[in-house]
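Example 3.2
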Amino acid sequence: MMKTRTAFTALGALTLAGGASPALADLPPPVRAMLDAAIASGNDADIAAVARTAKTLHPEDATQIDAIVSAHGLTKAEAVLEEKMQAGFLDGWRGSGELGGFITTGNTDSSGLSAGLTVTKEGIRLRHNVRVAVDYQRSGGVTTRDNWLARYEPNFQLSDGFYLYGLTMYEKDRFQGFADRVTVSGGFGYQLLATPKATLDVKGGPAWRTTNWIGEPDSSELQWLGGADLVWHLTPAIDFTNNAQALWGPENNTYSNTASFTAKISRALSARLSYGVRHETNPPTDAERTDTVTRATLVYGF
């Protein structure tokens, strides 16, 4: 609220200054004062709004106004870089935890408890992504859903949007026919889209997958992995994400996709609705090829 009030005060004072004397060697004091106030607020949207109004009222000073705003951006970027350089391994982690319910179709038609934890860390060139999720239900003394997922994906930035990725993933889904499954992959990624409104990353590379099938011989095979991750900020309060992944192998292919909408309730709390589908081309005998899961959760960011 204080930041917004600062911006409105700046804009109002700047409007009154619009009839001030023509260009001087330096910015008119009211203009510089309003820019300084907006920069002190630390809100990029307020800074951009004040700078835009200043250039409209004083077009002859547009170059100097842009220079001041650019210098602020460089100072802010330098501060972020310094913070990353000084951070230890346990510093700088951010993430979210979610808790709610699910409904499934496919090998089981059930509903139950869904929980998840996602943490990330942005280094200078190395990014860490960790995800743990579980769906569980027990009814009448019988477990009707027991699905676990844990994955760790480090990304090493190269240049011009290119990066190297690594992936280690553990899965457990007895109702889709496997007690344990481990996937290890590595390859190249590229950020196709990077704007304030949306990002889109694609990646691909070889993968080694070991599956402990239930009632079937275990399998280990070299596969190929392809994936695409989209984050789209529909509004300041609503995000849409879509995570697609495919694994191709000589014995079995796995295709999965999860789409979700996340709406902010407060600064730290959000509500999320997601729909996921997974398809196995060669599942165990009597198992369905396609499973779906719909989740509704509350998400707490930290």
